[in-house]
Structure formats: structure tokens, C-alpha cells
Write a structure and sequence with these properties.
By secondary structure, the chain is of the alpha+beta class. About 55% of the residues lie in helices and about 20% in strands. The chain contains 9 helices and 11 strands. The mean pLDDT is about 85.
Length: about 375
């Protein structure tokens, strides 16, 4: 059981216990209030048969002392004879107000009949403010606990994400630092090889890979800092990425690019944007296991730029789609499961866009969609 479930279970237990005990307390208070109204009824009846003024005065004092319980006294025909505990000041339609209150009291408690020799009266009574407050107390408590849980969950989630971000930033910068020394060494060896074989095609491709390594190190060094963005045409950038990855993909994999415009501009950090696309392509290559097609589609709307990266790989099961961007999640035998997590961070935090699984079907493939604001 995770901490969120434990918090919710604790809150349910607290509210359940509160509902139980306040319910019992409210029931006991309701019984006491009915006894008090019954005593009031006896006092009203006694006034009619009291033998002298002294006893009448005593009974009157008894029935007028308790004003916490609202009461309406009517005759047999329903005509109102007296009110207790009801304030009608400021009420424009007093008869309508009293009629509504009588109906409300009737639903809460059965009226008490007081029989006299010459007739009878009915006492309609409601709940005191204390009893009403007691009945609603658990719901107010529930609202407070729910608000507390929301604040706690948001606070813990924010703290957890902050710690995660610090870990990823530290890991990225350390990776960039560790890559720096061997890349510098390889650069030196490349200069020696280039002097020996100045026009060799393989040397040129090797230099592209070294440049790519330098770019990778630069990307990792920029994670955690605010990248510099500029408006760029994404068409040539994606075409270059497709060309580079196609030469390094298995022979039975075809990587294609299509667009609905020749000039699609967005405000991007080129190095980080390329890293996201390269990461999606590499994930697609892993998913296809050496055979299949990868298609990159670039489209623009009035306000957004859409980039779909589709593959014909093994697909993602539906129950795993919601987890693919979580740090540490991976379906591969190797890897740390950080690629898509960092990709989302780059797109959302640094480019004000979104990245999501547009669609996926097992054994048929997956499409990731990136949405960026149009420049």
C-alpha cells in the first residue's frame, strides 16, 4: 500500500468514526429535546387547570425559559396561536414563512398534541441550532480533511518532483563532465587520421559521430539550466536528423520524413530539440528489433506545430501507456528508463509544449506526438 492510499484510508476511518459518534450524540440530543418539548406541552396544559395565580406563574416561567428549540403552536384548524424560538423580523411574507416552517418541522418531528377540556392544540417543533450544527459537523470535518489531504499530496508531490529534478540535473551534468575527456582524446586521434586519410568517406562519417558525441555532451550539460531558444525552420533540422539516423539504422529499417509545408517555424533550443527526436527514433528502433518503418510527420496549424514519430514496432500495452514518461520505467533489458522522462521535461519545461502517446497498439506500433507553439 502506497502513502496516498494510506492517507485516504486514514481519512476515511476518521470521518467514519466521526459520523458514527456524532450520529449517536445527535440522536441522544434529539431525544432530550423531545423531552423538553413534552415538558413544555405539559406546562401549557397545566396553565389551563392551575388552581391559583402562583402556580400559573410558575408554569409560565418553566415554558418560557427554553427558547433554543423553535416551536409553532396551532389550534385544531391549523391556525397559529403562538411562536417560540422563531424570529420573524425582516421576513416579508410571515404567513408563508410560518407555513413553510410548519411543514419543515412536521418532517423533522411528529407534532405533540395537548388536549384540553374545550379542545386541543398542536405543537410543531424543529431542531435547535446546536443539534443542527452537530448533524452537519462531520461533513464540515470531511471537507477540512479532504482539503488537508489535497494540500499534503500536492506538497509531497512537489517535493518529490523537486528531488527528482535535482537528481536528473546532477546526473546529466556529471555525464557531460565524464564524456568531456574521452571526446577530447578522440578529437585528437581524428586529427591524426584526417592527416593520413584526408579524403576518406569513412573518416568524414566518423567525424560526424564525434560531432554527435560533442552535441550529446552539450545537451546533458544544459539540463537544469535555462536553454537559449531561437526561431528555426524545423523542416531542414528534421531532414538532417532523419538522414543521420538512417545511415546508422539496421539495413531493414526505413526512416522517412513528410511535411505539409516547406517552412515550419518554432521557437526551439536546437540541441535539446534534436535530442528529443533522436531519443524517440532510437526507442522506435529498439521496438522494431531491426525490421520496420519509422515515419516522422511535421504539420502546422494556425497556432501549433505538430510532430508525429510513428513506428511499426511491438507497441505499448494499454496498462503501461500512462507510465512511459515516469523516471525509471522501461520495457528494455538495458537502460535506465530516463529518456522519455527527460524528453517530456525538455518539451514541457523548456519549449512550452506537450509530448504524449498519440496511439499505440500491441504488435502494430506506436505514435508519439509533440505539440509546440507556433513561432
Amino acid at each position: 500500500m502506497n502513502w496516498r492510499s494510506l492517507l485516504v484510508l486514514t481519512a476515511i476511518c476518521i470521518v467514519g468514526a466521526s459520523l458514527f459518534f456524532t450520529g449517536r450524540l445527535a440522536s441522544r440530543l434529539a431525544v432530550e429535546e423531545r423531552k423538553r418539548v413534552a415538558l413544555f406541552a405539559e406546562g401549557v396544559k397545566y396553565i389551563a387547570i392551575a388552581p391559583n395565580d402562583e402556580e400559573i406563574s410558575l408554569a409560565t416561567n418553566i415554558i418560557t425559559q427554553d427558547s433554543t428549540i423553535p416551536r409553532i403552536i396551532t389550534d385544531e384548524a391549523g391556525h397559529i396561536q403562538d411562536l417560540k424560538g422563531l424570529d420573524t423580523s425582516g421576513v416579508k411574507d410571515v404567513p408563508g414563512f410560518l407555513k413553510k416552517k410548519m411543514e419543515e418541522f412536521r418532517k423533522q418531528n411528529p407534532p405533540i398534541r395537548v388536549q384540553f377540556e374545550f379542545g386541543s392544540v398542536l405543537i410543531y417543533y424543529g431542531e435547535s441550532n446546536l443539534l443542527t450544527s452537530l448533524r452537519y459537523f462531520p461533513y464540515a470535518q470531511l471537507a477540512i480533511i479532504a482539503l488537508f489531504l489535497v494540500v499534503v499530496v500536492i506538497s509531497i508531490g512537489t517535493a518529490h518532483r523537486s528531488i527528482q529534478n535535482q537528481v536528473w540535473v546532477g546526473l546529466s551534468k556529471e555525464t557531460a563532465h565524464q564524456l568531456g575527456t574521452p571526446i577530447s582524446s578522440i578529437e585528437g586521434w581524428m586529427e591524426i587520421i584526417r592527416e593520413e586519410l584526408p579524403d576518406n568517406d569513412y573518416v568524414a562519417e566518423m567525424q560526424k559521430d564525434v560531432d554527435r558525441l560533442k552535441l550529446v555532451a552539450d545537451r546533458f550539460s544544459k539540463v537544469g539550466s535555462e536553454p537559449k531558444r531561437q526561431v528555426e525552420n524545423l523542416v531542414p533540422r528534421l531532414q538532417e536528423m532523419v538522414s543521420y539516423m538512417q545511415k546508422r539504422a539496421p539495413g531493414k529499417v526505413r526512416i522517412s520524413f513528410a511535411t505539409n509545408a516547406d517552412d515550419v517555424e518554432a521557437n526551439v533550443s536546437g540541441a535539446l530539440f534534436d535530442w528529443v527526436i533522436e531519443n524517440l527514433i532510437r526507442n522506435a528502433l529498439d521496438a522494431m528489433e531491426g525490421v520496420g518503418n519509422i515515419r516522422i510527420l511535421l504539420e502546422e496549424t494556425d497556432t501549433t506545430v505538430l510532430i508525429d514519430v510513428s513506428d511499426t514496432g511491438k507497441g505499448i500495452p494499454k496498462h503501461q501507456i500512462a507510465r512511459v514518461f515516469q523516471p525509471g520505467f522501461t520495457t528494455k533489458k538495458r537502460g535506465w528508463g530516463l529518456g522519455l522522462s527527460l524528453a517530456r521535461r525538455i518539451i514541457e519545461n523548456y519549449h512550452d509544449g506537450t509530448i504524449a502517446v498519440k496511439q499505440s497498439e500491441v504488435k502494430k506500433g506506436t505514435t508519439f506526438r509533440i505539440v509546440l507553439p507556433k513561432a
